[in-house]
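Appendix B, record 7
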Amino acid sequence: MRRTNKNFGGDVMFTVDMVTIINQTKFLSNDKNKRRLIEYLSKHLQTAGVAVKQADHDADRLIVTTAIAESIQHDKVVTVGEDIDLAVLMIGLTHADRNIHFFKQGRGKTDIRVFYDPEASRQSIGDAGKRLMLALYGVPIEDTHLDNYRFKRFQTSVARAKLEGLVGRHVAVDDSAYNDPKSVCLVKECLVRIE
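Structure tokens (predicted):
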């Protein structure tokens, strides 16, 4: 019982000015702490004029559907994240008439193409999948067993869903796309920036 409690954080009543002494993992292991933090961040962002949506269960789907919905009203929507599920959902749900980008922060800040082309060949799907894995994980898929597995699963899911549309439009996104966004939706660990 003691070992379990070592990794569990107690209730922390925090304020904005408070210096925390508990590590992030322990703090977030307590559902009450996590709920209070989300409530605080939501209020803070809303006060700053930022639209906030909180997912009850599947944040990835909410992120992608929010980006798609906002792309109807805005010139450009950029989704920032690290999760391959976001990229796969965007590929499956985004149509060619939308100007949506998936932007991976971190190693090299890579822009991943959001593509849709029902005429694409299996070879172009494979090439696009390789570029996607390289952008997400920073190494060619041949270099790691895990990435190779993920890539094969990605190809299987694409083929099964008949989403043979992985090559198509692309507009480069650089840091200037983030300088003056009109609003930002914070969802899970991912930002959907709407210009």
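Remarks on this record: The first helix runs from residue 2 to 6. The CA atoms of residues 79 and 192 lie 4 Å apart.
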